[in-house]
Description:
binds magnesium ion, 8% strand, seven-stranded mixed sheet, alpha/beta, binds guanosine-5'-diphosphate, 2 domains
Amino acid sequence: MSKQLNVALIGNPNTGKTSVFNALTGLNQKVGNYPGITVDKKQGICKLSRGVKAHILDLPGTYSLNASSLDENVVIELLLNKNDKDYPDVAIIVSDVENLKRNLLLFTQIKDLKIPTILVINMSDLMTRKGITLDIELLEAKFHTKIALISTRKNSGITELKQLIESYKTISTEPCLDTTTIDTDYFQSLEKAFPNQDIYKLWLVITQDANFGKITRQELDVSKFKTKSNQELKRLQQKEAIKRYQFINAILKEGQIIDRSKATGLRSKLDRLLIHKVWGYMIFFIILLTIFQAIYDWATIPMDLIDTTFAGLAEWIKNTFPGGGKVTDLVAEGIVSGIGGIVIFIPQIAFLFFFISILEESGYMSRVVFLMDRVMRRFGLSGKSLVPLISGTACAIPAVMATRNIENWKERLITILVVPFTTCSARLPVYLIIIALVIPEGYIIGLSYQALTLMALYLLGFGMAIFSAYILDRILKTKHKTFFVVEMPNYKLPLLKNVIITVIEKTKTFVFEAGKIILAISIILWVLASYGPGDKFNNAESYVQTYETQSAHERSDQIAAYKLEHSYIGIIGKTIEPMIKPLGYDWKVGIGLVASFAAREVFVGTLATIYSVGSASEGENIDTIKTKMQNETYADGTKVFTLASGISLLLFYAFAMQCMSTLAIVKRETKSWKWPILQLIGMTAIAYICALIAFQFLK
Ligand code: GDP
Ligand code: MG
């Protein structure tokens, strides 16, 4: 058995924790969740010399130990609980050389918990350019710590850091601040009440209750020690911060020299342009357009490839195991096409996160957040809601997850609730086929009607999201007051390694979180469509009339369609027909709708089954489905798919909450069924009303 050492990476956001983590662990890492809450938990293994392995935990970004968000709370919960299996043997505080003063506040707090603490000063590559000089020896002595001056970008100092981790036992645990000096009387009485406890730890527990009220630890019950109001406690916290800054400033005065004349003015010049009242928005708009263009253009190549591969695979299975019966059918029609339906979204999701992560890494995203905050705030959203709303165009699931860095709960909740209105990639196939069906081909000033319709649908999604946010902002009552902190990090060339790791991580989340649900649903759908009650389903052959002129093939098509009509899903479709008739749909579309409540992208597949079951061996493609849909008529000879019913269907898909995976993730993120249920009912009602109005108006 080799020894294992627990190492926690702690630091302000954007100091390069994740980069240090990647440098230490490489790809030996896994991302999970903290139990019960939805903060990402990243852990990995770093091999040190002589068979020692360090277990590295990348903790969420934290400004101080006075938590004001879920993310920060995770750090404190861990540091206050010696029994936690992740409790660090050694803490690494990652700071960046440009914001040393602010970073050191957290450092002194962790140090005062008497955990052996290494100070990493990252981004040393920027020192010359910014005119910064550090006296490392002096800083080490004054802060009673060991310092690693590193640059993950230049890959320098990492070996030294590993050595420091190995010899963590030699690091002094002498505190930086004598806690009792904050308020002598109060802390002496605290010491008396809990003679065996560490005073700073007690103080953190007490203020934590006052700040966040989410403490889950029982071992330290401080509830009886309420001698100060929350307001007084906050004041003492401020006093603590001031004392810490005095301590830090005094040391930095000696140990750090910044020669401002050497710093370049590039940042301020870029900022002036990128957050300009007019140019800022224009540039952002152009960047967005470029990204979308790229996503749709580039992603189609791998998507087509995946599409044909899976269709081929399904066919191969059917041909290789002919007469394999139900099992072959389930594998070919249910499972393979189910997995295909998940995999097909990977290219778009990967591209989207590739771009988002470049924007974030380069420091540009913070400018956009700042820029958009002015606009978004009017609608009850935060500037930070922008990223989720944009990510929503790929898939609502990562988008809902991306709301985690919105500090204000009300803004976060509203963002989660409205994100599913943005046009996700699952709606795209539905839109494409219906547009092709009902919107005429033709051009107006060089733009095709069909493309314009598609764009209008995207705008409609955003518009509805913003509009409902505005309404929700008036309706929802929460106590949280609004505040907005945005980091303006320096511009940087994105680190390719970080970008790639982000893309892999997000794609994996999509495949596993959404994938398993989509897969389960396609199997259920297959079962509902392949079985039915009663004789009409089981003896379809004897019910379907034979005509003389009919080929064997046409007959088997007819039998299959008859079976579907009397299968369980057919019965469901017929049951809801009276409800959807006013929207202009028949029971077959009804089946598609029911299936889509699980996941929208199954709509086209379901219709393909309904309109062309049995003839799949002929090499089914969108065009033939389209032709069949075009020729579909009611008993009286009128067409099912007209402009009116088409627009109505488009609107229904634009607004309805038809995605179980999203509902599941909303439940997870809000920790309550209340919100996903509200979402389901509210969105479906809006969709129904809009579709109804459109159909009745246009028919
Ligand atoms: P975290 O938020 O603390 O996890 O920080 P990240 O690891 O995500 O890094 C934040 C930003 O700093 C990214 O844009 C990185 O590319 C950049 N960065 C990380 N390490 C260095 C470094 O050594 N030098 C420079 N110049 N930039 C770095
Ligand atoms: Mg990070």
